[in-house]
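re: the backbone from monday

yeah here it is again, tokenized this time
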């Protein structure tokens, strides 16, 4: 296990348990207590947790893993999903991308398409995600429109009135939405109401809405709703989605693509 993987696992355990003690964490990861103490000290230096005498507790009241530490979760599934989503986009389209690990992979899959290597523009990408804009802006064939707003360091997303004002003036062909949860009855949702508000507006401005989400996020609920299931045209997910849940989405009018 590499240090990055160990840190990922420690942060996952911290979220699951609400706190960590050195000895149980060492046992769970199969490393020495000294290694865990050193890891916790280094994570505390990055303000990802707060050290206590015997372990660590989450940093702040509302805890969320930063994007860079969520990117390795279900990586194989996300790669297949992202390639399938990218294949839905036609050259010359205006594509909206919300923030998130799966939508970041979609951006990379779009950049890798040979038929989008040239054009003026080959694609217009509208996003409120700083990291996605940063990855795509170096590709001259893509026109990048970045919303204004207040940056959330956990997700690199811009939110608030400035982001909403920008999106309110635009029309998008395909909106690709990352979610924390998507349920046939409760719709697509995220943990944060500020992100949900921006994502909701992006969906409203799009002719087609595509939710890109691995199966662990489906059939569950989250705090802030982005849109009802009826507003989603296509769900692209992995083969781990149960047939019963897929049938519920299809009954709600959502086309389900499992890859």
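seq for it, each position gets an aa:
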């Amino acid at each position: 296990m590499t240090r990055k993987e160990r840190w990922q696992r420690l942060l996952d355990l911290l979220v699951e348990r609400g706190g960590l003690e050195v000895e149980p964490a060492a046992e769970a990861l199969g490393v020495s207590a000294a290694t865990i103490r050193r890891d916790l000290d280094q994570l505390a230096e990055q303000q990802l947790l707060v050290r206590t005498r015997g372990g660590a507790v989450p940093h702040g009241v509302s805890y969320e893993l930063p994007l860079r530490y969520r990117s390795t979760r279900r990586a194989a599934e996300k790669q297949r999903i992202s390639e399938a989503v990218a294949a839905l986009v036609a050259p010359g389209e205006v594509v909206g991308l919300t923030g998130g690990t799966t939508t970041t992979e979609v951006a990379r899959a779009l950049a890798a398409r040979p038929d989008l290597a040239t054009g003026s523009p080959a694609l217009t990408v509208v996003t409120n995600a700083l990291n996605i804009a940063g990855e795509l802006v170096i590709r001259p064939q893509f026109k990048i429109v970045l919303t204004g707003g207040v940056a959330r360091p956990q997700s690199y997303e811009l939110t608030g009135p400035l982001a909403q004002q920008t999106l309110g003036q635009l029309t998008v062909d395909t909106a690709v939405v990352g979610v924390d949860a998507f349920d046939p009855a409760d719709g697509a949702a995220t943990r944060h109401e500020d992100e949900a508000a921006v994502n909701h507006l992006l969906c409203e401005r799009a002719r087609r809405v595509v939710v890109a989400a691995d199966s662990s996020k489906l059939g569950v609920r989250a705090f802030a709703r982005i849109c009802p299931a009826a507003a989603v045209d296509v769900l692209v997910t992995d083969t781990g989605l149960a047939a019963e849940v897929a049938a519920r989405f299809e009954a709600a009018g959502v086309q389900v693509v499992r890859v």
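The CA atoms of residues 6 and 29 lie 7 Å apart. The chain has a mean pLDDT of 91.
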